[in-house]
Write a structure and sequence with these properties.
single chain, 343 residues, alpha+beta, Glutamine Phosphoribosylpyrophosphate, subunit 1, domain 1, Serine Threonine Protein Phosphatase 5, Tetratricopeptide repeat, 2 domains, 6-stranded antiparallel beta sheet, 4-stranded antiparallel beta sheet, 14 helices, 44% helix, disordered N terminus
Length: 343
Amino acid sequence: MTTRTAPLLAFLPAALATSWIALFAAAPGAGARSEARRPVHTYSIVARDPVTGQLGVAVQSHWFSVGSIVTWAESGVGAVATQSFVEPSYGPKGLALMREGRSAPEALAALLAQDLHPEVRQVAMIDAAGRVQAHTGSKCIPAAGHKTGADYSVQANLMTDSSVWPAMASAFESAKGDLAERLLAALEAAQRQGGDIRGRQSAAILVVGGKPTGQIWKDRLIDLRVEDHTDPVVELRRLVSLWRAYQLMNSGDDAVTENRPEDALRFYSEAEKLAPHMDEFVFWHAVSLVSLQRVDESLPVFARAFRMNPSWLLLAGRLPAAGLLPADPALLDRIRAVGPKER
């Protein structure tokens, strides 16, 4: 038994083990860098926003850290979901082919032609022009299938029944909001329909910008994963909401820098409404008010942050050295005065 077949053998019935060793030994790119894996019983969506050009992929599975192997996307290029008896190389190789000018259907066809066992793969690709293609191999574990539409593909395998992916398609088509919101709507529809026959464990969402900036870290607009959770899609939505709150905080900071105080305060207020439990938002809101020379307004905000987490009181005294608060002892005394009193 090789190390790359051992995890699979731990899952498959003994009668099937020998045949699957032979199958995966001959998989694409087999050798030292290839790993046999259990089937990733999964539902996913790849999609494009025709207005912004954003590309995205979202997934849920009864599999640990599904986002690390299923979700792939590159700004201005395309998005890929690779699952079932997953061959992760479909992700980077598919993106490379689309980057070279192949359409998503051409890229997927080329990789399937090189695969000795396409019958166990489930893969979907979409390119920057919105061209989409999906493949569900004949040996994917039922219920398995896919549906493509304008600017999207939904696909699933090892589902409770065959209603899952049509429900995802309907939810995506009817959902309002940005691409991330519509991707989440598709995942939630799958779960309401019964989802994975074995249950749920992890989820991920990846959204990239429509036009590459030349800075990959800026192109990745949303890159969130739930690695292990009893309700991963619900948790993923919570993380996306928190991501939106942080984006609002960043917008507030930008508005402060650009001397747009009213915009800054509006952004901070919206961020705190989305994430009222985030004491960090409250503290930096107060600091920003000081930078806007609105000290009197900052004091009740500082007081709220200190009530939520007294450690902010200690940090406030260190900010003048970093240039984040004025080096004004009288100001620091006023800020400290609204903190919790020693007993």
